[in-house]
Design goal:
The protein is an all-alpha fold. It is built from 7 helices and no strands.
């Protein structure tokens, strides 16, 4: 909170214009880290990732997230937070009555973007 104004930048614009340059910058930064670690030993890589959280986030040395494999646990945690079956039903009802959300999900299904499992 104390360094918010010194460490962040606000840019106003449309995401269709801003997304691509930001994505390009992130991928270029990732390439830089890949070059830095390619010649390091396993021990040195561990130390490098320990000291550099940005590289750890961009290269994911522990592998990609596997949320679908954790689905049962995540759903159990969700039900704990949601509380009662009545609350879960309310959440489900909201999603089912949200035409814009359902339309977007149908489009994504049609494009094959949701083929990792049922939603």
């Amino acid at each position: 909170r104390d360094t918010f104004h010194e460490t962040t930048v606000s840019v106003y614009g449309d995401y269709t214009q801003l997304f691509w340059p930001m994505a390009y910058a992130i991928f270029e930064r990732r390439k830089q880290f890949e070059k830095q670690v390619e010649s390091l030993s396993d021990k040195d890589k561990k130390q490098f990732f320990k000291e550099n959280s940005e590289a750890r986030g961009l290269l994911r040395p522990s592998g990609p997230p596997r949320l679908f494999e954790q689905r049962k646990k995540l759903m159990a945690d969700f039900h704990k937070v949601a509380g009662s079956k009545k609350n879960v039903a309310r959440i489900k009802e909201w999603y089912q009555s949200n035409k814009e959300l359902l339309g977007t999900l149908d489009e994504l299904r049609g494009q094959g973007a949701l083929d990792i499992g049922d939603l």
